[in-house]
Amino acid sequence: MLLVFEGIDGVGKSTQIRAVSEALRVLGIEVVASKEPTDGPFGRRLRASATTGRLDPAEELELFMADRREHVARLILPSLARGAVVILDRYYFSTAAYQGARGLSWEAILAANEEFAPEPDLLVWLDLPPDASMERIRARGDGANEFERANLLEASRRIFASISKPYLRRMDATQSVEAIRDTVVGEVRQLLGARGLHADGRKPTDTGASI
Ligand code: TYD
After folding, report:
1. Which residue's CA is the nearest one to ligand 1's atom 4?
2. Ligand 1, atom 6: nearest CA belongs to which residue?
3. Contact 1, 191 (CB under 8 A)
4. Element (H, E) at 172
5. Domain-by-domain residue ranges, the chain?
6. Which residue owns the Cα nearest ligand 1 atom 19?
7. Which fold has domain 2-194?
8. Is there a cis peptide before residue 37, judged by omega within 30 degrees of 0?
9. Which of 161, 135, 122, 159 is nearest to 1 (CA)?
């Protein structure tokens, strides 16, 4: 199962992913948590560009795509094949939203990614207005970087709002960490149950408690 968290900077994705991962592990589920940009060579170049000055949109898009191809091939597909729940802090919906905000077609970006990147089973969009998200970034002691300028965040948020997929759930990010966690864990358990899997990945014919 592929579970993806998206949203503009400062909405609380990493905190939420820690909470959900912990709750799923307690249920006996194998969780592989990862993020994009990755810590690989392409991801490192992208992170550096946040402080040293942004690349032009086409070049930036190419690097995010290269980073993702590697991530999909090396980590995401093998982990899914093993039956783990893979949780991602950002995925190609961020490319649609952020590179789309720089003027590229977000629809074309989604389509290009869907050619090689598996679609999520559940996409949690943590939604918060940029004013509030930037306040959270300041509160955690980080200065906003080049990716985080308010007008770009507003444009990115509008694109997240335009994406329509059956697996997308918008969640109000002003809710407590626990409230969001419980909703997400409930949805994951429901999805695993619908596939006839117990929380620990065993088939229903195995003995033991079900989820
Ligand atoms: P972020 O999640 O903030 O990483 P970290 O906190 O580890 O530095 O990601 C860095 C920025 O990259 C973020 O502002 C969003 C942007 N981004 C894109 O523009 N396109 C993408 O495809 C992805 C995955 C991220």
Report:
1. 37
2. 9
3. yes
4. strand 168-172
5. 2-194
6. 98
7. Rossmann fold (3.40.50)
8. yes
9. 122
- Evaluate if pTM is beyond 0.85: yes
Please name the helix (run of DSSP H) or strand (run of DSSP E) that holds residue 206, with its range, or none: none
Pocket perturbation via mutation, ligand 1, pick of 38, 44, 90, 157 by most ligand atoms within 8 A of CB: 90
Band of residue 207 on the pLDDT scale cut at 50, 70, 90: very low
Interior angle at CA 162, CA 160 and CA 164, nearest 5? 95
Q: Which residue, among 168, 57, 173, 64, has the nearest Cα to 119 in the 3D structure?
A: 168
> Collapsing DSSP states into helix, strand and coil, what is residue 199?
coil
Is 113 touching ligand 1 by the criterion CB < 6 Å? no
Query: Which residue is it, tokens 């335009």?
Result: 162
Residue 102 CA to ligand 1 center (angstroms) comes to 14
CA of residue 37 to ligand 1 center, whole Å: 6
Going by their DSSP bridges, the two strands 122-127 and 85-89 should be labelled as: unpaired
Q: Enter the tokens of residue 96.
A: 């649609």
pLDDT, tens only, 81-101: 999 999 999 999 999 999 999
The pair of structure tokens assigned to 194 is 């619908």
